[in-house]
Amino acid sequence: MRLLLRGARVIDPASGVDGARDILIEDGRIALVDVSIAPSETGHTTVVDLGPSLVVCPGFIDMHVHLREPGYEHKETVASGAAAAVAGGFTAVACMPNTNPVNDSASVTRFILKQAAEADLARVYPIGAVSKGSDGKELAEMADMRDAGCVAFSDDGRPVATALLMRRALEYAGMLGLPVIDHCEDKTLVGEGVAHEGFNASQLGLRGIPSAAEDVMVERDIVLAAMTGSHAHIAHLSTAGALRAVRSGKERGVHVTCEVAPHHFTLSDEQLLAPLAYDTNLKMNPPLRDARDREALVEGLRDGTVDVIATDHAPHHADDKKVEFDRASFGIVGLETAVSLSLDRLVHRGIISLARMVELLSTNPARILRVPGGRLEGGAAADLTILAPDLGVTVSPAAFRSKSRNTPYGGWQLRGGVAATIVGGRVLFVNPDVPQAAGLGRA
Amino acid sequence: MSEKAARLRGKDLLGIADLTPSEITLILDTAEAMKEVSARPIKKVPALRGKTVINLFYEPSTRTRTSFEVAEKRLSADTLNIAIATSSVVKGETLIDTALNLEAMNPDIIVMRHASSGACHLLARTCKAGIVNAGDGMHEHPTQGLLDAFTIRERKGRLQGLKVAIIGDMLHSRVFRSNAYLLTRMGAEVWACGPPTLMPAGIEQLGVRATTRVEEAVEGADAVMMLRIQLERMQGGFFPSLREYFQVFGMTPERVRLAKPDAIVMHPGPMNRGVEIASEVADGPASVILDQVANGVAVRMAVLYLLAGGGDDETAA
Q1: Do A278 and B117 count as a contact with CB atoms less than 8 A apart?
Q2: Which backbone phi and psi does A410 adopt, to 5 degrees?
Q3: DSSP H helical ranges for chain B
Q4: CA A160 to CA A158: how far, in whole Å?
């Protein structure tokens, strides 16, 4: 079984490729990437002429999603989340452990992987808890979880409160060669905050979450990463101050990386006032920061300080959002809007190149999580994301594969979208609005 | 003076932030006519006859709920009071479900007080009935802002160019926000004074002058407004003790003397004597605290009349 993709622009920053290439896929693996490949004379080969308007990249990896299973299957399951992933152009996702029970043991890890294998869509990489029950007291069985398939450790949503436990987590995860991903937030400074502390929250009478709550924790983690020599990855970085800390840590050679979520580079806290005041789909944690923070993140995406775009895909049932703002759940879904938002707001506005976008969504997350993919090389699994960079997209939450619809982007018109998603050589998603990709539907 | 609007633009009164100066002037002028009604031997006009007003209170309130109820009755509306005890532990019916149930009974106006900022916005988006915000969380208490402005205007003849000092907990106060929007919008110079721990971020962007020195705020003021200090703020570590609060920020006769000789002293109630205000000041000649209560009825009559009565007849006057 062979598939030959012809005539598209191929972008693979890891191997320095950016130009017209043909890609031959054989038995689920990349057989060859070359300027021109003739259909083989022996064996059956499906040839799809994609043409120069489409872009083929190594498969996108969203290293921060919440799949809600086990425990909250009414919001999302591993299967529905994996379906949303391929529809959004992601060939792999890494899922956070704040399920019920928490993924703090190999048995929960194996359960998630079993659900992922049954769904057989996007690859799913579990992230194990740092501490038992994510309660910040005793380390979870990290080595056992690593052996079961965890690719990183995090107490996401319940930040590692004490510097001592964070130190030990970094040391222990360092032994395993895996990163600790920290949701940086000093809960004592956050209090009952629900929105970025600043003029906009003050006008609305919403309790504030100061930038300092994030900044102090990021600074702490960088100090501890330097001390231990281990790898700290900062989840959903949202403030200018935290970005400065990461930039300065990197300059000093500390092993620190960070990710930014699309909502933090596309929205800021003025949107809480209008067009729809108190829209609970604008409530997330970290909160939408102010316009200067947003601009700083955009600059970090441009200058290389930010390593990864990750969605923090946080599905919630409508019942959890159709309530008073301070009672609503934090978070929005992101898997099915991230690629269009990145193309429209970053690439088409001339802030980053397409190649840099591929680094942020594929090359770097693969490197940080030490998982396969992130590059197009002979013999590697054929995980490919195919983009239609000029496609006109209208965000339609009703059409999401995710079980949840909590997005502030409904009705947004964006330039650029996903044409198709290929995992292990199998075409799992073809966008019907992209005629050039139609041939893949028959592959 | 700003121009007077012919009517209010929206079906709701969610906050002063949504009002133009001409709408504010319309409400204050209408309240003057309503105040005259309250002075009559027969304190009732038929302006809202046949209209149904629901007072939906999710937070305990004696003063505001009573004031609304008196205003509704003087306008001949049919009123009913619903007090819902809420607890963060017990998960009851959602606000939207409650709203839809009330809506099914076809009320004309729902007056709501709720502990969550923005709860009235949620209600207004769900209901066809006009929504009057009687205080939502830390956001706004627009009828309090209006009655305060009415009281100042009644005594001073204007709002434009006056210095108004507001002293207390700005951070958690919906009364502060409504007053800051209203008074700055009408051309007054507003000073906000309190401990820095109780000042909201970006307070100057609201158009007010912020200071921690009570003498600076009060000096030359035409009106001095004290805000209630809640005991739980001390427990929350915002300031060390009620005793020290009174020492640093409490309104004493000595401090009142820094204001203009004819300055008025205001308080939205309920007062903590000896915490934010000395009894000699609360009961003294400059105090207009009970005028505020009386004016609250007139202002609420005006708001209800303008939202539910229309302006299509002359029954109010």
Answers
A1: yes
A2: -55, 130
A3: 21-39, 63-74, 95-103, 119-126, 142-156, 174-185, 214-218, 231-235, 242-249, 253-256, 279-282, 289-304
A4: 7
**What is the value of ipTM here, to two decimals?**
0.92
- Would you call A156 a catalytic residue per the annotation? no
The full length of chain A comes to 443
Q: Is B65 on the interface with A (CB under 8 A)?
A: no
Element (H, E) at A416: strand A413-423
Report CB contact under 8 Å: A277, B140: no
CA neighbor of A316 nearest in space, from A340, A280, A275, A341: A280
Q: Parallel, antiparallel, or unpaired for β A384-394 and A55-58?
A: antiparallel
Q: How does pLDDT run across A264-293, given as a tens digit for each residue?
A: 999 999 999 999 999 999 999 999 999 999
Of B229, B221, B220, nearest to B248 (Cα)?
A: B229
Taking residues A53-74, what's their average pLDDT? Answer: 98
3-class SS at B302?
helix
The percentage of chain B sitting over the pLDDT mark of 90, rounded to a whole number, equals: 87
Average pLDDT, chain B: 93
Mean pLDDT value of segment A35-57? 89
Token pair 């990290």 is found at: A142
Length, in residues, of chain B: 317
Distances (CA, A) of A40 to A8, A26, A395: 19, 11, 40
**How far is Cα A199 from Cα A202, in angstroms, rounded to an integer?**
5
End-to-end CA distance of chain A: 10
Q: Do A206 and B118 touch (CB under 8 A)?
A: yes
Picking from B117, B122, B203, the nearest residue to A205 by CB comes out as B117
- Residue B99: what residue type? A
CA–CA dist A6, B306 (Å, integer): 69
Candidates A278, A283, A320, A329: best to mutate against B (most CBs of B within 10 A) is A278
Which H or E element spans position B224? strand B223-226
pLDDT tens profile B88-126: 445 678 999 999 999 999 999 999 999 999 999 999 999
Q: Closest chain B residue to A202 measured between Cα atoms?
A: B200
CB count within 10 Å of CB B241 equals: 9
Is B15 an interface residue toward A (CB < 8 Å)?
no
| % of chain B surpassing 70 pLDDT | 95
**Helix (H) or strand (E) run with residue A247 in it:** helix A240-251
- Give dist(CA B107, CA B94) in Å, integer: 19
Q: Could you say which DSSP state residue A52 is in?
A: T
| Cβ contacts of A322 on chain B, cutoff 8 Å | 94, 96
Instruction: Supply the pLDDT for residue B314.
Output: 44
CA dist B268 and B289 (Å) reads: 7
Chain A residues whose C-beta sits inside 8 Å of any chain B C-beta: 197-208, 210, 277-278, 319, 322-327
Question: Is A278's CB within 8 Å of B17's CB?
Answer: no
Contact A324 B116 (CB under 8 A): yes
The sheet carrying B109-114 orders its strands as B78-83, B52-57, B109-114, B130-136
- Given the residues A155, A312, A344, A383, select the one marked as catalytic: A312
User: With contact defined as beta carbons under 8 Å apart, do A90 and A406 qualify?
Assistant: no
Mean pLDDT to the nearest integer, A304-321: 97
* Mutation target among A202, A269, A289 for the B interface, most CBs of B within 10 A: A202
Q: How many beta-carbon pairs below 8 A join chains A and B?
A: 63
Decide if B96 touches A, using CB distance below 8 A: yes
Identify all chain A residues contacting B233, using CB atoms and an 8 Å cutoff: none
Chain A interface test: which of B12, B93, B116 (most A C-beta within 10 Å): B116
Contact A202 B94 (CB under 8 A): no
Write out the two tokens for A397.
Answer: 């939450």
β-sheet with A232-234: strand ranges across: A180-182, A232-234, A256-260, A308-309
Confidence of residue B230 (pLDDT cuts 50, 70, 90): confident
